Amino acid sequence: MPAPGSRHLTRQIVIAMLAGIVLGVILNRLGTADWVQLVLVDGLLYVVGSVFVAALKMMVVPLVFVSLVAGVTSLSDLNALGRIGIKSLALYLATTAIAVTIALTLAGIVGPGQGFNAGSTAASFTGKPAPPLTQVLIDMVPTNPVAAMAEGNMLQIIVFALLFGVAVTMSGARGKHVLNFFGDLDVVIMHMVEWIMRLAPYGVFALITRTFASQGLDILLPLAAYFLTLTGALALQVFGVYPLLLKLLASLNPLTFLRKMRDPAAFAFSTASSGATIPVTLRTVEYKMGVKNSVASFTVPMGATINMDGTAMMQGVATVFIANVYGIHLEFTDYLLVVLTATLASIGTAAIPAVGLVTLTMVLGQVGLPVEGIALIIGVDRLLDMMRTVTNVTGDCAVSCIVAKSEKALDQAVFDDLSAGSVEAATRRPLSTHSAS
After folding, report:
1. Count of CB atoms within 10 A of residue 425's CB?
2. What is the pLDDT of residues 271-310, one digit of tens each?
3. Would the N or C end of the chain have less CB density within 10 A of its end CB?
4. Calpha distance 81→77 (Å, rounded)
5. Distant-in-sequence, close-in-space partners of 271: CB < 8 Å, separation ≥ 6
C-alpha cells in the first residue's frame, strides 16, 4: 500500500467511503438475513471498524502528551506559550459563537419543525446534566496524571504536559537529556501512526458500511427540513467561515487548505470523534500544512477538547426545530442565551460520538424547552454527528494555521506544496525542525 499522506492513500480512503455508503444502503434496502446480520454487519464489519477506532484511540494519549512536551520544550521563549494559548482559546470560542449564530439565523429562515407531529415518535431521551463551567475549570488540574491518561481526560493531559514541558525547559543540562528522549519518542510514535494509516481504507469501509446498513436513508425523509438546514449550516462554516478567516487573518490560500483537509475529514466522518481523529489531524497540520510542532501539539488537542463548532450548530438548529414542534415562541433574548450557552458548553465537552445530545439538554433547559424533544432527532443524529465532526476537525486545522502564521511558526513552502505530507519523509527530518523559529 502507498505511503501514508500520499495522494494514493487519500484516493483509497475516499473510494472506501463511497463504497461503504453504497453497500450499506443496499444492505439496508434489501434487508439482511439473520446470518448476514450476525456474520457480516454485527460480525466482520463491527470487529474491523472497532479495532480500527481502538487503534486510533490507542495513539491519542501518547501522541498528545509526547508531542506537547516536545513542542513546549522547543520554544525558546516561554512567553510564546501564553500567547499561543490565548490566541487559540479566543479563536475557538469566536468560531463557535459564529457557528451557532449562523445556525440560528438559517434555522429561523427555513423554520424546520413547523407542522411536524410531535406524537409521531415513541422514542424517549433522558439526558444527564452537563457540568457547570466552574467544575470544568477545577477539573482541568489533574489530581492523578496517570489516571487522567488512563481515562483519556484531554484537558488534564494538556495541563500536565504543559507543566512538565516547562519544567524540562527550566531544568538546564539535565532537562536536555529528557528533551532528547521525548524528541526520539515523538519519531517512534509517528511510525506507529504510519502503520495505522495503512489500514485506514479498510477501517473506514467497515465503519461506513455498518452505519448506513443500520441507519439507511429512509429515516431522513420525516426530518428532511431539520437535516438539510443543519447540513447547510455546517457547509457554510466549512466552506465559508474558515476559508474567510484563513484569508483575512493569515493570508493563506483557502483552496489549498481545503484540499489538504481530505484525510482528517474522511477520518472524522467515519469515526464521528474528534478525539479519535487527533493522530490524523496532528499529522496533517504539521506535515501537510507546515505548522511547527510547538504550535500544532498545543492547538490540535486543545481544539479537539473545546472546539465544537459543529456541535454548537446542531444545538442551534435543534433548539429552533424543537421550539417549532412544540409551538413555543422564542424571544430574541432566548436566541442570545442559546448562543452563549452553546459556546460555553463546548468547553470541556468530551470529543466522542453523540456527545452533542448531552450538552443539548443544558441548552434546551436554559430556554425552557422540553428535553423530551431530543427524542425527535435521535434517529438522524448519527449521520449528522459524522458531518459535524468534520466541521469540528476543520476548525481545529484552520485555527492551528492562523495561530502558527501569527507566531511565524508556519512553513509557507510546505503549506503551498500540494504533495507535502509523506510520513516516511517527515519522520526522517532533523529534530531541530520542531523549533518554532
Report:
1. 12
2. 777 878 888 898 899 999 999 988 988 888 888 877 888 8
3. C
4. 8
5. 53, 56, 207, 277, 353, 389
Residue with cell 491519542: 60
Q: What angle do CA 105, 107, 112 make, to 5 degrees?
A: 165
Confidence (pLDDT) at 84 = 87
All three cell numbers of 136? 470544568
Residue 413 C-alpha cell reads as 513552502
Concatenated DSSP letters of 87-124: HHHHHHHHHHHHHHHHHHHHHHHH-TTTT--GGG----
143/156 Cα distance (integer angstroms) = 9
Q: Could you tell me the end-to-end alpha-carbon distance of the chain, in angstroms, rounded to an integer?
A: 35
Distance, CA of 249 to CA of 400 (rounded, Å): 12
- pLDDT at site 356: 64
R_g of the chain computed on alpha carbons: 22
Task: Quote the cell numbers at residue 424.
Answer: 516516511
Whether residue 234 contacts residue 313, with contact meaning beta carbons closer than 8 Å, is answered with yes
Distance of CA 12 to the CA centre of its chain: 22
Q: How many Å apart are CA 66 and CA 232, to the nearest integer?
A: 38
Question: What structural domains does the chain harbor?
Answer: 7-429 (1.10.3860.10)
Q: Residue 57 corresponds to which cell in the numbers above?
A: 484511540
Helix, strand, or coil (residue 170): coil
HSE toward the beta carbon, residue 225, CA cutoff 13 A: 18
Which grid cell is 51?
A: 479495532
- Residue 126: CB atoms within 10 A of its CB come to 9
Average pLDDT over residues 114-136: 55
**Angstrom distance (rounded) from CA 251 to CA 238:** 17
Contact 60, 152 (CB under 8 A): yes
CB-neighbour burial class of residue 219 (10 A; exposed 0-12, middle 13-18, buried 19+): middle
